[in-house]
Design a protein that fits this description.
The protein is an alpha/beta fold. The protein has 11 helices and 6 strands. It binds magnesium ion. Magnesium ion (MG) is lined by residues 13, 15-17, 190-192.
């Protein structure tokens, strides 16, 4: 539990925490790649799991400032065409693919059903709320608006405004500064054990890992029992639904 320190703020990750981004990119990848080739169900599964695993670490290279958001996408598309046995896309073909992908991705953004109520409960409890994200701020503001959360979540700290992303403590501290809370008064919740919950604990916040049933990633980001035990020992809280989050800010005895 978060101990005796009262919670005054909650910072949320966006992708796969509030918004079902994995389903959105899955739909967008299948549709955009389906314009180039006929995909069997097995092809589609292989393609989506390759993208999600991001074994080449291209997204993390974007977060670290080594690739642009489009460059990381291109490298990942090269991996997909290789997995599908297709030739690499030239610049023009990639640009067309990317435009189709982005349009379909944005059309597929959907909020998890436990998300709005969780954010609303935090606001109703008088807590400051905001977002700390490793995606570009403009994209995340558009996503928050598209899923109908813009009335509740206006405070956004993004990798491109801070210059560093999670797991760097600086981005969590910028989130706290934005809320006007101290790290030890602030909860951070996200779907990645290491760069969300573990890194938040490292930055002095209450770090919460949302481990939705059936949603764990494979590849290098897979969570082993050993990694989970170490994270819990370091102070990471684990929840299976955002409906469990309010207990972390409710004082003992205040629950009905
Ligand atoms: Mg996430």
């Amino acid at each position: 539990m978060s101990g005796a320190r009262p919670v005054r703020g909650v910072l949320f990750d966006v992708d796969d925490t509030l918004v079902d981004t994995a389903s959105a990119f899955s739909a967008a990848l299948i549709a955009a790649m389906g314009e180039l080739t006929t995909l069997s169900e097995a092809d589609a599964d292989r393609m989506v799991s390759t993208w999600r695993a991001d074994a080449g670490g291209h997204y993390r290279a974007f977060v670290a400032g080594r690739l642009s958001i489009v460059q990381q996408r291109r490298k990942r598309v090269d991996e997909l065409t290789a997995v599908l046995g297709l030739g690499a896309l030239d610049d023009e073909a990639f640009a067309a693919w990317d435009s189709s992908y982005q349009e379909r991705f944005a059309a597929a953004w959907v909020l998890f059903e436990d998300a709005r109520s969780c954010v609303a409960q935090a606001v109703d409890a008088g807590l400051a709320v905001g977002v700390v994200t490793n995606a570009p701020g403009e994209l995340q503001r558009a996503k928050i608006a598209a899923v109908g959360l813009a009335d509740l979540l206006t405070e956004v700290v993004a990798v491109d405004s801070v210059g560093v992303g999670k797991p760097d403590p600086a981005i969590f501290h910028e989130g706290c500064r934005m809320l006007g809370t101290a790290p030890e008064e602030t909860i951070y919740v996200g779907d990645e054990l290491d760069i969300d919950a573990g890194a938040a604990v490292g930055a002095g916040l209450t770090g919460v890992w949302i481990d939705r049933p059936g949603r764990r990633r494979g590849g290098p980001h897979a969570v082993t029992d050993e990694r989970l035990a170490a994270a819990r020992a370091a102070g990471v809280e684990v929840i299976a639904s955002l409906a469990e989050l309010p207990r972390l800010w409710q004082q003992p005895g205040s629950e009905a």
